[in-house]
Structure formats: structure tokens, C-alpha cells
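Dear colleague,

Thank you for sharing your sequence with our group. We've completed the structure prediction you requested, and as agreed, I am returning the results in plain text so they can be pasted directly into your records. Please verify that the sequence below matches your submission; if there's any discrepancy, let me know and we will rerun it promptly.
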Amino acid sequence: MRIEIEEPRQSWGEDFAALKRVIMRVAPAGAYLHHIGSTAIPGLPAKDIIDLQLTVNDLVDVDADALEQAGFERRPIVTDHCPPGFDLPEGDLRKAFYRSKGRPANLHVRERGRFNQRYSLFCRDFLRAHPTRQAPMR
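Please find the predicted C-alpha cells below.
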């Protein structure tokens, strides 16, 4: 599949909101969902694939069958990459990964408080707060 970088779209936020309504119906109690990745950064060109992060207390709390019925296919990725310069236990990089069968979207399910859960939010929030740091990504 060829991935193309597109100009920013207002609809990405709306698409996230629609996906959130579907996902949160089947999410475990106490879970929360964030829009992450390049489509979550206002004004940043991005691939037209919405990245979402579902934060849960434990990965075993997720009902994979319910997510499947909601339109998300489980994929085999079970860990995130370790950023250069970090030495992290595998548990801090563990996740479940789902791909939407409809509107192109990736659902990253990560455990609350783990490095990978915090890092994705940190990167998003940093780029939102410091638009001049987006220049190398344009």
C-alpha cells in the first residue's frame, strides 16, 4: 500500500470523534482514548490514517471480540520500538494493535503509566505546543 502525505484536514478531528464513539462503547471501564500521531497535530501534513491510543489498566481487560465486532481487526504487533538512547523493559513497550476495517485508522492499546503510553502523548503535546519544531516534519 502506498502512503501519501496530505495537507492538514479539519475532518481529522471529526473522524477521531466518530471513531471514539464506536470504540468507547466496547472499551473496558476506566479506559480513555486519545487522538495521537500526525493527524492530531493541527496544521501538520500527514498520512490520512487516524492514530488512536486506548489507555487501559491491563491489556487483558480489552475485549478483542467486541473490538472486532465494532470494526477493528487485531494485528500481530505486540511491542513498540524502543527510542534510540533508551534502555527500557519490554513491559514498557507492550501493546495491542488494531486496524480499522472502515475509515483508515490504527488503534494502539497501551497500559496506563507505561513508557509507550506516556511517550505518544508527550510527543503529540510537544508538537502542539511548539509549532516551530514541526518544520523538520513538513
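Summary note from our side: The chain has one domain: 5-78+88-131.

Kind regards,
the structure core
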